[in-house]
From TrEMBL:
Repeat found in the keyword field: yes
Membrane topology: Peripheral membrane protein
Entry-linked InterPro entries: EMC2-like, TPR_EMC2
Domain EMC2 TPR-like: 89-196
Keyword set includes Membrane: yes
Protein name (Swiss-Prot/TrEMBL): ER membrane protein complex subunit 2
Main localization (coarse): endoplasmic reticulum
Coiled-coil ranges per UniProt: 87-114
One GO CC term, this protein: EMC complex
Length: 289
């Protein structure tokens, strides 16, 4: 989006940047345009929002690889607030953006040593280790972090993803269960655990996957991925329960048929002709009763 800077006053620009912050919109390129055209020459006229605006500009500069701008602003803040842990975090972010990971880690270690409860620095340390490809170290760091900050949902999500990267599916499932405890009505959390259990394989895990896919669809009947997952799990269970008279086999077969019919109905609702017919593809995979 382009702006007519001549029509925007400084207060309107500050209001606009506040709106972006409140809406969690990064808008880095726009912020740098505003910095170069208006904000840079009005550095001392930001009012009460001066420091939060400077932080917003610093991260926008890092996003746009304008490290000189970020470095200059960090220097100004370090002169005004010598020894500030927040400013030190800006320095580590700059070093991380420049791929000077070891130096960034040194600063983060200094922050954590000064304040063991600094959650932002601890999480950033995990991000740096991950960027370096040190996944096992990142897992250890994040697991230690969660011992102190057990209610951090984003951290549980990240730890789950890291365990999946190293194929530690049992531990990833534990993280997914923690996420469900924190967000029991979030259908995506149930779907994630179902996906993990399906990947782990075996009758017991398939039964658990079936349960979580069903709960996903109960919370959100429009979740096509859960429908497909339920179909695949049910088909798998039909194959496991060899006896044609088995009640579990009949239940699994009915679930597979139900998932297929629901998928066909949703495709008809969407009237999608550009993509392959998913219901037909599922039919080709299904097992006969």
């Amino acid at each position: 989006m382009s702006y007519n800077y001549e029509e925007l006053s400084l207060s309107e620009i500050i209001d606009l940047m506040r709106q972006w912050r409140e809406n969690n919109e990064r808008k880095s390129e726009d912020i740098m345009e505003l910095w170069l055209n208006v904000l840079e020459t009005n550095l001392n006229n930001y009012g009460n929002e001066k420091y939060v605006l400077l932080e917003q500009i610093i991260y926008a500069a890092l996003d746009c690889h304008q490290y000189g701008v970020a470095n200059a602003l960090i220097y100004l803040l370090s002169m005004e607030f010598p020894g500030s842990l927040r400013v030190m975090r800006y320095k580590s972010a700059l070093l991380e953006a420049e791929e000077k990971y070891d130096e960034a880690l040194n600063i983060l270690d200094s922050i954590i040593k000064a304040d063991e409860t600094n959650a932002a620095a601890r999480k950033r340390r995990v991000a740096v280790l991950k960027a370096q490809g040190h996944i096992n170290e990142a897992i250890k760091e994040l697991a230690d972090y969660l011992k102190k900050f057990m209610s951090d949902v984003e951290a549980w999500q990240e730890l789950c993803e890291l365990y999946l990267q190293v194929q530690e599916y049992g531990r990833a499932a534990f993280c997914a269960e923690e996420l469900i405890l924190h967000q029991p009505h979030n259908h995506l959390m149930h779907q994630r655990l179902a996906d993990i259990r399906y990947t782990m394989g075996g009758v017991e895990n398939m039964e658990l996957a079936k349960t979580y896919y069903c709960q996903t669809l109960k919370l959100n009947p429009d979740n096509i991925r859960a429908l497909l997952g339920l179909f695949l799990v049910a088909n798998n269970l039909v194959g496991h329960y060899k006896s044609s008279g088995s009640s579990k086999r009949k239940e699994a077969w009915k679930l597979a048929q139900w998932a297929q019919s629901k998928t066909a109905a949703k495709q008809r609702e969407a009237q999608s002709t550009a993509s392959p017919n998913l219901a037909d593809m599922m039919l080709s995979l299904s097992l006969a009763e």
